[in-house]
Amino acid sequence: MVPWLSPDEPFPAVERALGASSGAPGLLAASADLLPSRLIDAYRRGIFPWYSDGQPVLWWSPDPRMILRPDEFKVSPSLKKTLKRVLREDAWEIRVDNNFAAVMRACATAPRHGQRGTWITGDVIDAYSTLHRIGDAHSIEAWLGGERVGGLYGVALGTMFFGESMFASVTDASKIALAALVAHLRRHGVELIDCQQNTAHLASLGGREISRKAFIAHVRTHVNAAPIPWNFDKAVLADLLGGRGTPDAFLPAA
What we know:
Blueprint (H helix, E strand, L loop, with lengths): L3 E2 L21 E5 L4 H9 L3 E2 L7 E4 L4 E4 L8 H12 L3 E5 L3 H10 L12 H12 L3 E8 L2 E11 L2 E9 L4 H15 L5 E4 L3 H5 L3 E3 L1 H11 L32
Parallel strand pairs: 1-2, 9-10
Antiparallel strand pairs: 2-4, 3-4, 5-10, 5-11, 6-7, 7-8, 8-9
């Protein structure tokens, strides 16, 4: 039985989430509210909201968890060529937090293979926009010729980045934004990006699954670290073109 949370009721332990044999593996709880304080508490515990319009707010903590280590980000030959062009051509820009809500709206309307509609409703945009105003959520945006053509947004707590959604209106624009984010996080020693659930697209970029136990252990330590700065431009992409770096063995055994 999935518990229904009243506004002041804490989340149950993540180990109580539904298992793989259920119809909704990882589902932990449901509620009527999506308050910013509830959101922050959720991310600090390795929990995220995901639901369809008309449903209650559904809270998830899947096992295993999809993550991307910045040092494991895969730069294919074609993406490397694209990044070199972005660095070379003045028409390309990376802007951070230029218009957070606009990026969310673009993600909401982006077509998704096998999906109809979106969970990024007006209430969701309002809640995450509040997190953005207090400095806990950020957008990374790819611009071409003065137009936003791709981007992503997520929640940043300490030295953890929780990715939420991406969009692109021209080829590879979301990958360019992700590459810029990865390079920035590498510069500041961030070891893990939460990708929530497994997709072939994320796996192609270096994402992989780890156990929930390993993920939660990492989150508990890193959300309490000093926050990193959030100002950078496309120059960070050069970091991905000059070498792969040395991976760190930071995660507990899965």
